[in-house]
Structure formats: structure tokens, C-alpha cells
Specification:
The protein has 7 helices and 16 strands. It has about 350 residues and is of the alpha+beta class. The chain has 2 domains: about 180 residues, Diaminopimelate Epimerase, Chain A, domain 1 (Roll); about 150 residues, Diaminopimelate Epimerase, Chain A, domain 1 (Roll). It has an 8-stranded mixed β-barrel with strand order 1-2-3-4-6-7-8-16. The chain is globular and about 60 Å long.
């Protein structure tokens, strides 16, 4: 009996503004190559429509979470995030995903990996991609996961129950350092850039340096092929500068363009994943963007001058709304140090059953 005949148990959840397939690690092949082949066939990759699989024809809906018991003394479960390509048969473990992370705790309880509390449950999660820790706290009245609630997040219709995510040890998640180049500011192709890795390696530049206002819609950015080519060339050079090697086929680093807030927030962003524009902004990308802006001398630091003194919660504007992130950075040390970060997301179970791969 093969997976082609028997299928594999799978849960699909929306986590934040992403959607992914969630698996108990024990249900998947142990060999990574065999596992990845199975996941690609389940997702329907490669195919721009993913018509013969469970993908949604975008990178935001071609994500996988592999969750299993953890041997780490400070974690309940291990979470491996895999980003699958859409048009190309690629599987990458080079980054975390803070949106999909929002579904890991509820999934762990649903699958019996963690016992539920009577009112709420906190699940300690080791993010395998970066060997860092997160804690997800969410309501479990009567010992059952409650997905319904009154929390609204930009980019997702309706409301749902809150999933509070607190991060630890995310500094240098992919590069080994908060400032991977060793500098607060560098110059690439005549563009000032700050490279930051606090859970997600990102390149911060001003929208103006790319000839933009920073308030363009997602559709306007997606239609500007010349801009996308410039963003791609820029990020490839930045990736090498960050010590990531040749990132031509990699999902990181992300490019984030900054502008003054225009809708009551603290910072306006337009991000690319890694070349196509994001309809919103990734959770950990937002954390890294705010982290960078807080550093004196960094690109975007001038945009923080009116932020309330001592406040740690920052409203990040993006094309479809706002994302509140909590970031504390110690700038008195050399180099600066990320102290903590957190965010509120929501999640919803879409289905649980058996998924069958295409031949």
C-alpha cells in the first residue's frame, strides 16, 4: 500500500492571512525527498492553477506545516514550515511563517499532541526552521479548540478567536545575526538598505528609492513588471550580502519598502514575497521591519520620531489594512539585541480528512 492508494491524513487551516496543509510528522515519509515529492503532488505543483491539487494558486496558499512531538525541554511540539512553489516544483525550509504558526497550537490540540486546558491553552512551539521558540495561546473552553470569536485581522473576512503569539530567540533566524551584514545601513545599486533578521531575513528600503510613493495598491505593484525585475535583482544582491549565497531560487530575503504612515498607523509597508507583491505583510516580516526601523541610523528610523516614547506596540500599515506587532529592541548594546516580539493572529480549521496525491 502506498500513499497514492491510501492517501494521507491532512488538516487544512487558515493561519493569519495564509492557508496551509497541516500534517502530523508521523504520518509523512521520514525521507525528506520522498516527503517533498508527496507534498508537491498533494499541492498540485507545478501548475500555475494547481488545478489538480489542494493549493490555491498563490504562494500564500501553498504552505505546509509538519508538526510532531518535541524533544526540546522548553517545547511541546516541533513545527517545520515548508514553502511550496506554485509554477515550479520547489520545497523550501529556508524561512519561518508566522501566519501558518497561528494554526500550529490548535492543530496540536486537535491531534492530541497537547492536552487542552479548560479555558485556554498555551502551546510551546519549537520552530524547526530557525531553532527558535514561540508560545501560542488560544481559547479552549471545555477542553475544545474554539475558532469562533470577535477578533478581526486585515486581509481575512469576518472574525475569529484570537491566537496570541509570543516569540523568543528569533534573532538571526536564517543568517545567525540580527544585522547579517554587520552594518545598520548598506548601499546596493545606489539604494540605501538595512538588512535585518528577527524571525525573517528582510531588506528594508524606502519606497521613494524605488521611485514609488509607498501607497500603491497591490494590483498596481503586481502590474509593474519593470519594478518587479528591479526588486528581484536587488534582493539577489542583498541576499549575497547577508551571507545567504545565491538566492535566485530562494524565498528569502523579503524586500520591504517603507513610507510614512498614512492611515493612523506607525509605519507604511509594501512587501514582496520574494518578488511578487504581498497583499498584506507576513507576521515575522513585519516584526523584522519594525525591529529595523527602531535602530538608530537604519533605513526608516526617521519614520519613528513621532512614535510614543516607551510604547512597544506598532501599527504596521499594508495594502489591505493594519497589523499590530509588539517589538522590544535593546539599542544600548553593540550590536543591538532583540528582546522580544509578539502578535495577535486568528486561525480556522477548514477541513480534516484524507488527502490523495496526483499521480
Amino acid at each position: 500500500m502506498t500513499y497514492d492508494d491510501s492517501g494521507v491524513r491532512c488538516t487544512m487551516l487558515r493561519g493569519g492571512t495564509s492557508r496551509g496543509l497541516f500534517f502530523d510528522a508521523r504520518d509523512l515519509p521520514a525521507d525528506p525527498a520522498v516527503r517533498d515529492d508527496l507534498l508537491l503532488r498533494l499541492m498540485g505543483t507545478p501548475d500555475p492553477r494547481q488545478i489538480d491539487g489542494l493549493g490555491g494558486a498563490t504562494s500564500l496558499t501553498s504552505k505546509v506545516a509538519v508538526v510532531g512531538p518535541s524533544g526540546h525541554p522548553d517545547a511541546d511540539v516541533d513545527y517545520l514550515f515548508l514553502q511550496l512553489g506554485v509554477e515550479e516544483a520547489t520545497v523550501s525550509d529556508k524561512q519561518n511563517c508566522g501566519n501558518v504558526l497561528a494554526g500550529v497550537g490548535p492543530f496540536a490540540v486537535e491531534r492530541g499532541l497537547v492536552a487542552a486546558g479548560e479555558r485556554e491553552t498555551s502551546v510551546r512551539i519549537r520552530m524547526v526552521n530557525s531553532d527558535s521558540l514561540a508560545v501560542a495561546t488560544f481559547p479552549t473552553p471545555g477542553g475544545h479548540v474554539e475558532y469562533r470569536g470577535d477578533v478581526s485581522i486585515a486581509g481575512v473576512p469576518g472574525t475569529a478567536a484570537p491566537v496570541v503569539l509570543d516569540f523568543a530567540d528569533t534573532e538571526g533566524s536564517a543568517t545567525g545575526a540580527l544585522l547579517p551584514t554587520g552594518n545598520v545601513r548598506d548601499t546596493v545599486d545606489g539604494i540605501d538598505v538595512t538588512c535585518v533578521d528577527n524571525g525573517m531575513p528582510v531588506a528594508l528600503a524606502t519606497a521613494a528609492s524605488f521611485g514609488l510613493t509607498g501607497y500603491e495598491t497591490h494590483e498596481e505593484l503586481a502590474a509593474d513588471t519593470g519594478l518587479l525585475e528591479r526588486v528581484d535583482a536587488f534582493r539577489v544582491k542583498v541576499g549575497a550580502l547577508m551571507g545567504l549565497g545565491d538566492v535566485t531560487a530562494s524565498s528569502v530575503p523579503k524586500t520591504i519598502l517603507l513610507a510614512p504612515a498614512a492611515d493612523g498607523g506607525g509605519l507604511c509597508t509594501r512587501s514582496f514575497i520574494p518578488v511578487r507583491p504581498h497583499t498584506a505583510i507576513g507576521v515575522l516580516a513585519a516584526v523584522s521591519a519594525v525591529t529595523g526601523a527602531l535602530l538608530p541610523g537604519a533605513v526608516g528610523h526617521e519614520l519613528t520620531r513621532d512614535w510614543p516614547a516607551g510604547a512597544t506596540t506598532v501599527d504596521v500599515e499594508h495594502p489591505t489594512g493594519h497589523l499590530l506587532v509588539d517589538v522590544v529592541v535593546d539599542t544600548a548594546t553593540d550590536p543591538p539585541r532583540a528582546v522580544r516580539s509578539g502578535v495577535v493572529r486568528t486561525a480556522r480549521k477548514l477541513f480534516d480528512g484524507t488527502a490523495y496525491p496526483r499521480a
